[in-house]
Amino acid sequence: MDEHLERQYLEVELYEKILIRERRRKAILITLSFCLFLFLCGIPVYNERKLKWESLSAAKDVAIEIEKLKTESLHLKKPLLLSVLDNGQVKVEQVSNCNASLGEALQVEEKLHDETWSNSDNEIALMDAKWTVRQLCFDPVSGMSSPKIKKVFVLAPVKDLAESRLDRASYIEVETSAAKVSIN
Q: β-pairing, 170-175 with 151-157?
């Protein structure tokens, strides 16, 4: 009889081990299925927000160039003009003065450097509107030209320009004569 009980005990032990293994497999399968579900649900959200992140990255690059412009202008003690181009470049040039009227072109004395703010796919473009600008002039003595007017650069995904969709655009605001830069 002892053999019979011992045999049943071993069978129950074996059966419990099999049950534990099956539960573990189910838990792993459920966890992996849930993770796959979350990953697949996140793809549309990522694709929607990717363009906003790229425009913010480009805006950060342009804002860094504006800060470099102020630093270089103070270091050289000469006015500098920053131009943001459509091909994804920022051009910095030394000018004679920043006080030219809107119709006059600023006289360029020397081209200092070019930097790239856009990615190679050209998915981000500088938006043209009557309240946006493409150039910024900073004089180390008087500060930014026309300090009472807020200068705004708008970088938007190319896909959104045709639809006039501005929710994924990034705004670089330059205000006051000290050219305080903020990104929205």
A: antiparallel
- What is the 8-class DSSP label of residue 101? -
3-state SS assignment for residue 177? coil
Check pLDDT > 50 for residue 103. Answer: no
Give the pTM: 0.73
Cβ-based neighbours of 116, under 8 Å, separated by 6 or more? 61, 88, 89, 90
- The answer as to whether 20 is a domain residue is no
> Among all chains, which residue has been given the structure tokens 């800060």?
67
Query: Domain containing 97: what range?
Result: 50-183
CATH number at residue 157: 3.55.40.10
List own/partner pairs for 81-84 with CB under 8 A and 24 or more apart: 81/106, 81/108, 81/135, 81/136, 81/137, 82/135, 82/136, 82/137, 82/138, 83/134, 83/135, 84/117, 84/126, 84/134, 84/135, 84/153
Phi, psi of 81 (to 5 degrees): -115, 125
**Any domain includes 39:** no
Residue 72 domain-assigned (yes or no): yes
- Position 1 scores a pLDDT of 58
**pLDDT at 43 exceeding the cut of 90:** yes
H or E segment to which residue 45 belongs: helix 2-76
Whether 27 is covered by a domain: the verdict is no
pLDDT tens by residue, 158-178: 777 777 777 888 888 888 777
The tally of domains found in the chain comes to: 1
